[in-house]
Amino acid sequence: MSNEQIEFADFFEASWDPCLRAVAAVAGDAQRAEDQVAEAFARAFASWQKVSRHPAPRAWVVRTALNTGMSWWRRRFRELPLGDHDVMVPANPGEDGSAAVLTALRLLPARQREVIVLRVLLDLDIGTIASQLGIAPATVRVHMARGIAALRPQFAPGMTKEINR
Amino acid sequence: MNYNTDHMSDDDVLSFVSDALSGVPVARPPRLEAVMAGGRARRRRRRISGAALAVAVVAGGAAAGVVVTTPPAGKPPANSVPAVGTQLTAWSVARQANGDIFVSVRELADPAGLQRTLRADGVPASVTFLDQQNPACRSYGRGTDQSLLVRIFFPQLAGGQPEGSTVATRGGVTIVPSAIPSGVGVQLAWTRIGKDLIGHQGLVQASPQCTGS
């Protein structure tokens, strides 16, 4: 394999998981997210010279995957509330309240969900999120604050004990 | 049910979200080779569309074809050998050393003569100028795969050219007679838009009424 291919292979292996989680969490459809993310990685390889120099290559992949999905979606439907099909389900839903968190995440407005997911799964700072989404950093902060405020009441007392130990 | 969680910091909330998302099982990745193959296919499509031409599929039953912008005066490749009696003012047909045919159109005149000349050089063709159509022609393979068009008209691309190569079709059209399947003819249509001659290439079913053979 060429250096380019080796570099891409390393990136792909390390990034598939977080990118897929991010897209599935934002788009709300785990099955379609798989196809979108695979397509996005193929596009990343096609433009690897550019993507490898991007300040946040994983964010590039996630954005590309989401844009692919949104194009498909827009051609067919106006934005609909997320249904229950192929949603992300925690491995052990009853044990730690994560199901409640994921449900609450799904119910957030799309932009708030997107900002939070990019922050927690790709570890992007406010400025990078802003540039990826094409919005102002101040707007990102607003979305983040509103999303966190909506999520906060979902956490049960049992969960706060985990934080306080 | 909501709980009093005002004491939870924003980072605490985000940490919980991160843990919840990280615990969700996700699908295994596809094979790396498949992903890279998809990327390489994209690069090839970009090279074709980024060259000095636009690939267009003509709707309404006409042949799938390629539109090429050609300047009025064309030059055949340096190693081409002009066929006897074909160096005319309006157009020229030159057979290259490798057997390919190079057609250069400078004026939109005598399409029938060009068609006869191509047939004599082993290329069944339907040639029309200025949006004239031959109603006897039937397109070959609606939605014909682009790879056949590339093999016939853009041999430089069909061989998997290294990155950076360009399509040398300015001023003319290259036809690869050996790539034309039996029963198939090439459709060449030129029109003028402003100062430019615009060429359209496609494939038709060969017949006496359409291609003369």
Placed side by side, the strands forming the largest sheet of chain B appear as 1-2-9-8-6
End-to-end span of chain B in angstroms?
A: 81 Å
The number of helices of chain B is 5
In whole angstroms, the N-to-C terminal distance of chain A is 49 Å
Biggest sheet record of chain A: none
Structure description:
The complex is a heterodimer of chains A (165) and B (213). Chain A is mainly alpha-helical and 165 residues long. Chain A contains 9 helices and no strands. In chain A, 42% of the residues are buried. Chain B is α+β, with helices and mostly antiparallel strands and 213 residues long. Chain B is 25% helix and 27% strand. In chain B, strands 1-2-9-8-6 form a 5-stranded mixed β-sheet. In chain B, strands 3-4-5-7 form a 4-stranded antiparallel β-sheet, with helices on one face. Chain B starts with 9 loop residues before the first helix and ends in an 8-residue tail after the last strand. Classes of the chains: A mainly alpha (165), B alpha+beta (213). The interface between A and B is large, with 51 and 36 residues.
